[in-house]
Amino acid sequence: MSLDTTPTDHRLKHATAHETRQRLEHERATRLTQLQALAEAGPGDETAEHLAAQKETLRRVLKEIDAAFARVEDGGYGTCQGCAKPIPAERLEILPYARYCVPCQRSTA
Questions:
Q1: 10-residue averages of pLDDT along the chain (109 residues)
Q2: C-alpha R_g of the chain
Q3: How far is it, in rounded angstroms, from Cα 73 to Cα 93?
Q4: Which residues lie closer than 8 Å to 47 by C-beta, 6 or more apart?
């Protein structure tokens, strides 16, 4: 803890990191459940190509979630990787593994 950080600030950051990890764990568990359901799904209305695309999307999101965990650990979580400004809390509530703020996300798409 630095000299300019009060114990209260440290507890708030810790609580926030804890809450962030919980949200990311929930996201990971949800995606793993979806991936498992796709793996167990028998042939139906979905084409093999469509199922493969869904599985690939879920695997990509799982990688994004793992990267978000790393950013929590290294202190970079919540900072846009495009402009280095804080990502709005509302965006992180909706998409806890977001790497970019909305304007930077639009420019990378």
A1: 42 68 96 92 72 94 97 94 95 94 91
A2: 17
A3: 18
A4: none
